[in-house]
From TrEMBL:
Record protein name field: Beta-ketoacyl-ACP reductase
Keywords: Oxidoreductase
Molecular-function GO term, any one: oxidoreductase activity
Family according to the record: Belongs to the short-chain dehydrogenases/reductases (SDR) family.
Name of the encoding gene: fabG
GO aspect biological process, one term: bile acid metabolic process
InterPro entries tied to this protein: NAD(P)-bd_dom_sf (IPR036291), Sc_DH/Rdtase_CS (IPR020904), SDR (IPR050259), SDR_fam (IPR002347)
NCBIfam families (alphabetical): PRK07231.1 (NF005559), PRK12826.1-2 (NF009466)
Species annotation: Paenibacillus nasutitermitis
Source superkingdom: Bacteria
PROSITE patterns according to UniProt: ADH_SHORT (PS00061)
Amino acid sequence: MSLLEGKIALVTGAGIGIGRGIALRLASEGADVVINYRSSESQALETAERIREMGRRALTIRADVSKVREIRGMVQEVRDRWGGVDILVNNSAVDPRENFLDVTEEAWDQVIDTNLKGTFFCAQACAADMIKKGGGKIINISSVHGMTTMPRYAAYAASKGGINALTRQLALDLASHNIQVNAIAPGATEVEKFAKADPEHDKDVIGEQIPMGRIGYPDDVAKVVAFYASSGADFVTGQVVTVDGGSSTRFFLKG
């Protein structure tokens, strides 16, 4: 029997990048996967097709997780069609890099509403179904920027630090319902931005600064998500684990 056989997983921001890697890994472990996206419809549909090729069910739902009404509509659709969520992965995020003095109220709200508020209200909406089912797993995708960061990440770092604190709080609040809540903090990971001709995002340059000699890949994160989602983590809750090749162990990582 597969690790996650019979489980329903909802992954936000699953059309591209780390979210796509997580969705594919959970499907490979036997889960049926709901692929949430906001604007990357073609990529979400491609991810769904790859999951179906594995013999698992896939459902794509467009929803902006910065809006509570859309979150609740998405979770209701999963409830109506598949009976509710067993595993929630809060992955959707935005990360604009701006100098601290240039951050506008609009930019701040976009980051906090998507990254932190979205995580809170997705967890709240899905926890109701998990309680009825007798338990569940919530995995929040944080970042090393929530613990040690670089210039021009003020709003993003604040949102990810908030996710770390929220993870511990939800673990406490939901422990009596047999819902485990954990977070993963990736470091530099090869996603679409590394394909740009941008020296700041050159994966080889960044990889040279990481103790393990390379940047991460989405499946490096996804494999840890699969563990947290499994019965192997039934007594693990309130934890934030870094998946960064050791970069956060260093005093300074040039950004």
